[in-house]
Design brief:
By secondary structure, the chain is of the alpha/beta class. It has helices spanning 4-22, 30-54, 56-75, 89-102, 112-116, 167-180, 188-192, 195-208, 219-230, 245-254, 266-283, 309-319, 341-344, 375-384, 386-389, 396-411, 414-433, 459-472, 506-524; strands at residues 126-132, 135-141, 147-154, 212-216, 236-240, 257-261, 292-297, 322-326, 355-359, 369-373, 438-439, 447-451, 475-476, 478-480, 495-499. Helix 1 runs antiparallel to helix 2 (30-54), helix 6 (167-180) packs antiparallel against helix 16 and helix 8 runs parallel beside helix 16 (396-411).
């Protein structure tokens, strides 16, 4: 027997217990219990001595563990949880009162000057109540605080193909809501993926001639998550200075080494690439030691310009970079079939642009976004795209709406050609009739940007005034610029932005330009334009 003392102790305990329960009809007497307790130390001593003689290492380990447990249980600290450290009710009330007295407000309180002051960039708040096709209903509050409702021509939003309020989207969304309900209630990687998400990914990848696509629930987070998923600390991003806010957010989140080149300046881009090449040579670093990307937009949201992709792609191949291209505003607007800037310049997806992001919120009139590319590009984001992994997936009806829009776009190519025809007509009429403002956007762009011909300290007030006057005359446009500059690489000059839709007719465009000309003359006459 390995441990005779252990056996002896166990046998004696078992024998005693058996005798108590089976040999007597009553519970053990007090005398018997006392006798058992008196014999227990001796039996335990015999067991302990036998155990030490047979296996001293085992005894040492067991003793150490037992002592440790006793120490933790008995001497563990409860500092910070004693009743004496708790605040009294009076102290809690005093702290709460002090916090209420000194806390900052969540929003600045409204003041009469913020509503009626003529020096404010947006003196009269504008509320959009309804959008229906090319029209929308808005209300504005004047100096007398009287609300006025207006039905105006919509030259504001990015509904380039006029699908946001179309019956195509309404029917698809209604059917999806009846079948799936509203939300999927979870990230895509858990229980948030619905078959409509996969169907949209297949439809988009097929349309763009790529191996795959990955859907995000928000258009802005699509390019933000995509850039940050591929570029990490130590990688290199060469970024156009004109990219819009979501791309800049992704660039910052990547924590990569960032170099900027002047907006749409191919010569400056090559200068930056050559400097990085010289740095590699100086450090003895191989070109493939880092992941390197050029980041551009196909059609720039804030500027209305189009990237010279043919020249950028030539440099990309020459210096062995990858290209991240955002087609959020060029998809549905450029190219013979609306596939975007790559199609417009006759370039190949996955080869000339490895990573392409597309928002569903503009031409397709839905919500969300997709990134398209080869299988590696798509699969990598399913584990590394923050917006995919940690955000709730898009409601199924938004995917259904995007699928319906895409089918409509494929089955009615005239909607794209009509948009491009309207864009051409708009720029022709602007050139013929508008002399007070200068067109700074590309003549192929449905995003029309107009600026003052000379710099002025009154630029923001002038553009805001033109917007307000146009609204009162039935045309809704946007005054933009400095309000977004804090999130961008370069400061934007105050400007007027107009967006063109397939739904607009030449008569609508003529009216918009006539109103713009009238309002520009009226407002500009109030201010000196000389640079100060």
């Amino acid at each position: 027997m390995l441990f005779p003392a252990v056996y002896k102790l166990g046998f004696k305990a078992g024998e005693t217990a058996y005798g108590w329960w089976h040999n007597t009809t009553t519970l053990p007497s007090v005398l018997q219990l006392v006798q058992f307790i008196m014999e227990l130390p001796g039996s335990y001593k015999d067991w302990w001595i036998g155990l030490v003689s047979e296996d001293p290492l085992h005894v040492a380990v067991e003793t150490t563990l037992l002592a440790s447990i006793i120490y933790v249980v008995v001497s563990r600290s409860t500092e910070g949880y004693q009743d004496k450290d708790k605040l009294s009710k009076k102290e809690q009330a005093d702290l709460l009162a002090d916090w209420k007295k000194t806390r900052a407000p969540l929003a600045p309180p409204p003041t009469p000057s913020s509503v009626s002051s003529s020096s404010s960039s947006f003196p009269n708040p504008i509320v959009v109540h309804q959008q229906a096709g090319k029209y929308m209903t808005v209300s504005t509050t004047g100096g007398s605080n009287k609300e006025t409702k207006l039905r105006v021509l919509n030259f504001c939003n990015f509904d380039f193909l006029g699908l946001q309020t179309s019956s195509v989207i309404k029917e698809a969304s209604s059917k999806a809501l009846q079948k799936y309900g509203c939300g999927s209630c979870g990230p895509r990687g858990f229980y948030g993926t619905i078959d409509t998400h996969l169907q949209l990914e297949d439809a988009i990848s097929s349309f763009t001639h790529t191996d795959g696509a990955i859907m995000y629930s928000d258009g802005a987070s699509t390019c933000t998550s995509t850039v940050a998923a591929f570029a990490k600390r130590g990688d290199v991003l060469v970024v156009d200075e004109g990219v819009y806010e979501p791309i800049m957010t992704g660039v910052f989140l990547s924590r990569a080494n960032i170099s900027y080149f002047k907006h749409n300046d191919v010569e400056d881009l090559e200068r930056v690439l050559q400097e990085l090449q010289k740095e590699d040579s100086r450090l003895g670093r191989k070109p493939n030691a880092q992941r390197r990307f050029i980041v551009v937009e196909g059609l720039y949201k804030n500027l209305g310009t189009i990237a010279p992709l043919d020249k950028i792609i030539a440099l990309k191949h020459k210096y062995h970079y990858r290209l991240i291209l955002d087609e959020s505003f060029s998809f549905g607007t450029l190219g013979a079939t609306g596939r975007g800037a790559l199609e417009h310049y006759h370039q190949k997806p996955m080869y000339d642009a490895e990573i392409v992001t597309i928002a569903l919120e503009n031409s397709l009139g839905s919500i969300g976004g997709v990134t398209v590319g080869n299988e590696e590009v798509v699969d990598h984001q399913r584990l590394s795209g923050a917006g995919y992994c940690f955000s709730a997936s898009a409601p199924p009806f938004t995917a259904s709406a995007a699928i319906a829009s895409l089918k409509h776009m494929q089955g009615n190519p005239a909607c794209v050609t009509q948009l491009q025809s309207n864009v051409e007509y708009m720029y022709q009429q602007l050139e013929a009739h508008l002399t007070q403002l200068v067109v700074t956007s590309d003549i192929r762009s449905p995003i029309v940007v107009l600026q003052l011909p000379k710099e002025s300290v009154y630029e923001a007030d002038i553009t805001s005034g033109i917007m307000q006057e146009c609204l009162q005359r039935g045309v809704a446009i946007v005054a933009t610029g400095q309000d977004a500059s804090s999130h961008l690489r370069t400061e934007l000059a105050p400007a007027i932005r107009m967006t063109i839709s397939t739904l607009h007719t030449h008569k609508d465009i003529d009216k918009a330009i006539a109103v713009l000309v009238e309002c520009a003359k009226l407002v500009i006459a109030r201010y000196p334009l000389d640079k100060e």
